[in-house]
Known about the structure:
The complex is a heterodimer.
Chain A: H1 16-29, E1 47-52, H2 58-69, E2 73-78, H3 81-85, H4 90-99, E3 104-109, H5 114-121, E4 125-131, H6 137-151, E5 158-162, H7 169-180, E6 184-188, E7 204-206, H8 209-213, E8 218-221, H9 237-244, H10 248-253, E9 259-261, H11 274-277, H12 284-302
Parallel strand pairs in A: 1-2, 1-3, 3-4, 5-6, 5-8, 6-7, 8-9
Helix pairs in contact in A: 1-6, 1-12, 2-12, 6-7, 6-12
Chain B: E1 2-10, E2 19-26, E3 29-34, E4 43-46, E5 51-54, E6 56-61, H1 74-83, E7 86-91, H2 102-115, E8 119-124, H3 138-144, E9 148-150, H4 159-169, E10 176-178, H5 183-186, E11 191-192, H6 195-200, E12 204-205, H7 207-224, E13 228-230, H8 236-247, E14 252-256, H9 258-262, H10 284-295, E15 301-302, H11 311-314, H12 331-340, H13 347-362, E16 377-387, E17 406-416, E18 419-423, E19 426-427
Parallel strand pairs in B: 1-4, 1-5, 6-7, 7-8, 8-9, 9-10, 10-13, 11-12, 13-14, 14-15
Antiparallel strand pairs in B: 1-2, 2-3, 5-16, 16-17, 17-18, 18-19
Amino acid sequence: MVKLGKDLLGLRDLSVEQINLILDTAAACKDIFKRDIKKVPTLRGKTVVTLFYEPSTRTRTSFEIAAKWMSADAVNLTVSSSSVSKGESFVDTVRTIEAMGVDLIIIRHALAGTPRLLADSVAAHVINAGDGAHEHPTQGLLDLFTIREKKGSIAGQKVVIVGDIMHSRVAKSNIWGLTKLGAEVTVVAPPTLIPPEIESWGVKVEYNLDRALVEADVVNILRIQLERQTKAFFPTLREYSKLFGMNQERLKRAKPDLLIMHPGPANLGVEISEVVSDHERSAIREQVTNGVAVRMALLYLLTGGGSKDAVLH
Amino acid sequence: MRYCIKGGEIINPAGEFQGIGDLLVSEGRIVELGKNVKAEGAEIIEAHGKLVCPGLIDLHTHLREPGREDEETIATGTKAALKGGFTAIACMANTDPVIDNAAIVNFVVEKAKREGYVRVYPLGAITKGLKGVELAEMGEMKTAGAVGFSDDGKTLMNPAVLRSALQYSKLFEVPLLLHEEDPELAGNGVMNEGYWSTLLGLSGIPAVAEEVMIARDLLLAEETGAKVHFCHVSTKGAVNLIREAKQRGVKVTAEVTPHHFSLTEASLENYDPVYRVSPPLRTEADMFALRDGLKDGTLDVIATDHAPHSREEKHREFALAPTGMIGLETALGLAWTNLVRTGYLSKNQLIQAMSTKAAEIIGQPGGVLQAGMPADILIFDPEAEWEVTESELVSKSKNSPYLGMRLFGKVETVLVGGALKYFNQSFIE
């Protein structure tokens, strides 16, 4: 029987079978949204901590809701970056948290690899909720889930990922997952935001969004980090938006069934126009819903759950 | 004491006698070497099946004293050096306080005389406080015992300051040892930029950050005619630049570390900060280019960049851990295993790279076995296989990535100035 390991640190580590197990279990979890009382006793007695070293409302709330609907006790810890710079030992902090009887720790950290250090330091399960420019596996999985749900399958889909590929953990997790499941991935960005040797991951690199969109079945638009303007990766947001922004004009030229995705939060009018964001082909809200389902599935599978059919019982 | 080292294979690239033979030492100096040397009145050191060579000399050790005696001291660092087969080390200036004046040079020299296990040659800072602005007192420091100058850890970015330092250094005929990495191109990088930085999501330092500085400073070396030595060369492009410059007659020297010729960036896969070094571990192509550079003499010496760090500082988030690893006790084994056994270097080339050329660069005795020279001698067993273990390391810090690794080439016996300091793998206190 297919099982997950102790931790979920990235999609690079998962097999196709493991990814499908997560997606199938998430599909079962999604049933709960139709219910009046959205709470099942599956994880009663388990304690889950969200340990966030970077501010986040969406991802953390999504995890918290997922934990609560599964009847786990959820504790939220936000660690200010100032206490990190004060030199508090990370390993000491997480061992202290574990000593309080925690079963699973969900971590977000600005520094890539920190979830790995956490997983190596504690016996509790660890879920990476985003580490630097490394991976954001739960976002990657919910994106896979959304494509599969909307398109029927992932194999053979032509997926365009546009934006700051270099610094995006969402892009990295998407690329691992999509290529494992047989999608054809093209990344689009100015050359300054294409990470070195990304072609070796089995993706195509394209600088021209219009050319990439012609054949695309799915476009996943990444958030441009407005705060990351120090290194002059591109001259202005206006120029970026003109070259790489997803707007109505571009939408008109794309295939009629193009699926529009964005991990949020969007800079409306920069990488995506409001009209496109709210368009009937946009799955952006649905992605948020799917995020809860995927995270429920992961909490269940990592803490020992086996059958997808038992997840809501 | 008189010692006669009997029957070993004498590796002596710069000396007159090579091959199986004996070596007689008396009153601190080498008296005679050759076949069937008369050993009357001498204590015999049996060396059949062993290699007998000039003691190793390291041009790049961080002793951490003064300032970080919790990580290493002159006593523990030189003890590690001795165990690694070194009879002399040059120590870097980036201590706290910085070795940028004669008083601190003097402190190191005097402390090393009292507590050191091997010879210690301080390197002074090129600029006061390593700040890259004002020249430090080279003349005063040289008189106190400094053998060269380096702002290692920092790149001298102001070309006018470096040019001036190079011109001034000619007054004393001392080498300037340059750490070459453009901090703007390196940015907030923590590893080599390339396949693995993309995969790990860590910021990359491109090879060109090193290469632009080496290109600039080759021109300054050529123009000034000063003695320029490049520290820890790490990229294929840098090797090519130095090779081309040497071919057109530019007199520079360069070093490579054991970790750069034995490891690649792929080691970082699990984010273990023990592999975080400056310059970063590079690609396999770079690693092999460095071996080729040693082989054809583009790179002159192997230097350790022995950089002790406490466990507390190293065992943390990768990007927050300090750079550097210890290397004195594993350098010879790594070189023997990776370079000689694989056919990259002959025994002679190895000793040139780890001893003879290092002595030449800093203008100090050693590097050759010759009658009348100080008896700094290493005897090692090239066939002995050993495992690197934490408990065996005598360095105060244990930040070695080689723990658990098996290496060939084990130091047996070391004489420093004719005194038997390490004998049959044991310290003689």
